[in-house]
Amino acid sequence: MAEAWYQDCVVYQIYPRSFQDSNGDGIGDIPGIIQRLDYLQTLLIDAIWLSPIFLSPMADFGYDVSNYCAIDPVFGTMEDVENLIAEAHTRNIRVVFDLVLNHTSKEHPWFIESKQSRDTEKSDFYIWSDTIPNNWYAAFGGRAWTYDSLRKQYYLHSFLPDQPDLNWRNPKAVDAIFSQLKFWLDKGVDGFRLDVINCIIKDDAFRNNPKILGSRPRPYDMQRHIFDRNRPESHQKLKMMRKLIDGYDQRMLVGEIMVELPGEPELAASYLGRFQDELHLCFDFSLAYTRFSALKWKRVAKRWYEAVGKHRVPTWVLNNHDLPRLISRLRGNENKARLAAMFLLTQRGAIFLYYGEELGIPNSKVSRSAMYDPLGKRYWPFHPGRDPERGPMIWSTGEGNGFTTGESWLPFAKAANRYSVENQELEDDSMLHFYRKLLGLRNKDSVLRLGLCSFIDTTCIHILAYCRELDEDQRLILLNMSGKIQTFGIPLLQDKDIRCEKLFSTHMVQEPEMDSLHAITMQPYQGSIYRLV
Ligand code: TEU
Ligand code: CA
User: Fold this and answer.
1) Fold type of domain 451-532
2) Exposure string (b/e) for 96-112, b if CB count within 10 Å is 16 or more?
3) Can you give the pLDDT at residue 509?
4) Annotated catalytic sites, by residue?
């Protein structure tokens, strides 16, 4: 059997509305993505993941699907999608689609039928109740139960009232959901990112969530989300889904596990299945939620590796369409962002990048009145909305920045020209070339992709140090996460007869920095990768 491609893949997430517009309406689309596949190929990524492109009223920009087997006209046609899959495959790029299976749009024919009456085929496709049965709140505001005047009952929605939750306890609904997956598997899609997949099964007795004392703008944050997710039966459903997908060759499931801050890596890992019989990959966001610090990042990464274990595959991610971009979380500090990228791309397992991350594009500024995101609209300024991290890709300088010939649906990041692919191609030390070098190094070095990782202590708390090891081949990675010059030693290694050969560094010119492992000097925010011989 061929090695599974996902175990050491780099996946590039595209937010289709913001990647490349091909028809001047200011909104990115599928033909636009096809035009940019050559660029993506230069990044040596293994796959692209597209945020939802299916028919949708766009109450939550595609995370509210009204037909899983139709393409929303704003993005293109079924033919465009077939072309995309074919064109990506000729470039050895796999295609991962985003499936939102916890809920549909309220305009999905299933829901329209379900609310019609209590005894049709689809009556129990959703979760209905005569009264509001518990204290659950919705992530996007208000109670999780909304009254439907046609059916004269309340339905459950974990997000917007426009997004009714499917009833995964109904085998007929599960069958119907699985046939949507089959449709895309038969079309040659290589995998799925499964939205909030740990939320699909709710407590069968609808018990109240425990309250959290205090006051917060979002009632949702005033309860612990115990009973509206993570029920034992969700593992059963994922095992069924895994069986289905294993009937096809080399397909992958990556799950978004919605957890409480600051992250629950063990819970996330549980969805990989004890016998690797659930998800192939799942996201743990602890790292993205953790302040940039050598000690903290080390603790978080160690815990994630331990939760996943040696035989399953960890996933690493710093950016996505729900989080302020890392460079903005770092207040624009590019040196820190480079070090973070070096950390990310020297971990074992699957790496997820978010479009524009490779350019260091920061968040766009979006005012409350121009905000589309329902979360931002409702909870501004407590939640500034997610539009800022969804700003358009910056391809070139000048009006529209190569993204559109029309008016972009969201504003570009401030001083957009300086982040453009066009400009960064020309500068040897640009963020783009930095990412390319790291991606190139990872691509040709199986130790960096697959080798086990062990963190090692140095005499300085600002240094994040770890070894990667595969078949006795070793790499040493040293990251100075402080803004000061640091001189330190590595007690564990210094007595051994080891030579370090530098493969790559953020500061290639500052040589020599290492006479022995007793005395290493690193520049502020320097990161280096060595081969140990
Ligand atoms: O996200 C679930 C989720 O955790 C976030 O929406 C979170 O509530 C929010 O970012 C608060 O900071 C997934 C999708 O990634 C998101 O885009 C969708 O809006 C959501 O599910 C509903 O489908
Ligand atoms: Ca368009």
Assistant:
1) Immunoglobulin-like (2.60.40)
2) bbbbbbbbbbbbbebbe
3) 64
4) 195, 256
Query: Could you say which ligand is closest to the alpha carbon of residue 408?
Result: 2
Name the pLDDT band for 315 (thresholds 50, 70, 90): very high
Contact between 80 and 16 (Cβ < 8 Å): no
Task: Name the CATH topology of 11-103+170-443.
Answer: TIM Barrel (3.20.20)
Question: 467-495, pLDDT tens digit by residue?
Answer: 999 999 999 999 999 999 999 999 988 87
Ligand nearest to the CA of 197: 1
Q: What is the mean pLDDT of residues 157-165?
A: 98
Domain boundaries, the chain: 11-103+170-443, 109-156, 451-532
Ligand 1 atom closest to the CA of 139, numbered from 1: 8
Distance CA 229, CA 278 (A): 17
Q: Atom 9 (ligand 1): residue with closest C-alpha?
A: 322
Pocket of ligand 1 contains residue 60 by CB under 6 Å: yes
Residue nearest to atom 7 of ligand 1 (CA): 322
SS3 436: helix
CA of 379 to the centre of ligand 1 (A): 14
pLDDT in tens, 430-460: 999 999 999 999 999 999 999 999 999 999 9
Report the nearest atom of ligand 1 relative to the CA of 158. Answer: 22
Rounded distance, CA 417 to CA 399, Å? 10
